Fold:
Amino acid sequence: MNEKAILASYDLAVQNGYNKSIDEFKQLLSSNTRALDVSYNLALENGYKKTINDYKVLMGLGEETQATQDPIVKQAEKKKTILRNHLREMVLRFRPYQLLTQRHYALVS
Structure:
């Protein structure tokens, strides 16, 4: 567990609307996989480059096992993370166009 990393993740959550204590944040991450995914995605958006399994270990929620240490598994996880980042970038690039198109159709209708 890396306290600085947990604090950084907590700060990102607060910036995005989370309003409870850091202890409640830690409890939430350990008991709610959706919250953990949201926290991980915020970390990715802010420069984190490793896999979700690495993130869990960093947050003190997982243990580095032989499977997560296996180079083939690590490579597959890294590719998955890269694809997820590319997909996120594509969605963010498309969103302004989509909003513009929706406004255009609203004006035409």
Helices lie at 3-15, 22-31, 33-45, 52-58, 66-69, 71-108. The chain has six helices and no strands. Residues 3-108 form one domain.
